[in-house]
Amino acid sequence: MGESMFGRSSAGFRWTLRLLLWSVGIAFMLPLYRAGVAFHDVDTQQQCANETASAKGPQAGLFQQQRFCLCMFLHSGYLESRRLEPALDDVMALGAAPCDFVGIWKSARRRSVYRITMRDDNTFTSEPVADYGRMSGSAAGSGYWGENDGRLVWIYQSGVTWPPDINRIESQSADKFTLIETSGERTEFTRERPLQSARCPSA
After folding, report:
1. Could you tell me the CA-to-CA distances from 161 to 17, 166, 189 in Å, in that order?
2. Is the pLDDT of residue 194 over 50?
3. Tell me, what DSSP letter sits at residue 97?
């Protein structure tokens, strides 16, 4: 009985030691893996940007971004492709910018306040409001936007966010709407002034 108990104790110790070594190995390798993925993403982004730079037409910018996102998806591994698939579905479904959202808006979330210009050609620019930018660490950005099935999609060209940022629209009225961020926080948009165009005369 003593030898049997000793054998079980020894086997348990060996398994505990293995688990400890595996945990240490995973903790050591994970940062290297993330660094490798980040390097691969940067390299792939440049390759896809080069491959999709020839789009033309009135919605050429958005079409180019859709091709870019598809390219990134096709160059991703299995796990990454599973993560990107929902975002890709929303990006590929985007069409002409809905006029309800065209305009110049102030967006506010905690200490982060931006002025966001959403144009009818699906482009946007965002800049931090001066009084808050330094405190929040905010930075200007630009890219393409669109709406699909109650979600706003932001595809950044500067102030890079990858994959595209997708926010559910919680509420909407003529001059206000609220987005749910991926973190669960809410961002309140208030229209500062309209941005009229031939396609959106009352925006």
Report:
1. 41, 11, 20
2. yes
3. P
Q: Summarize pLDDT for 98-130 with one digit per residue, the tens.
A: 999 999 999 998 878 999 999 999 999 999 986
Question: Which among 175, 203, 179 has a CA at the least distance from the CA of 191?
Answer: 175
What is the rounded CA–CA span in Å between residue 138 and residue 148? 27
Q: Which of 2-6, 36-40, 87-91, 170-174 has the highest mean predicted lDDT (pLDDT)?
A: 170-174
Classified as helix, coil or strand, 60 is: helix
CA distances from 118 to 15, 52, 98, 142 (A): 58, 23, 10, 10
Quick one: CA dihedral 98, 157, 169, 101, positive or negative? negative
d(CA 169, CA 37): 31
pLDDT at 35 over 60: no
* Residue 81 phi, psi (nearest 5): -65, -35
**Phi, psi (rounded to 5 degrees) for 111:** -90, 5
**Angle value at C-alpha 123, between 118 and 124, nearest 5 degrees:** 45
- Torsions phi, psi for 151 (to 5 deg): -135, 140
**Which of 56, 84, 60 is closest to 70 using CA atoms?**
84
**Is the pLDDT confidence value at 13 over 90?**
no
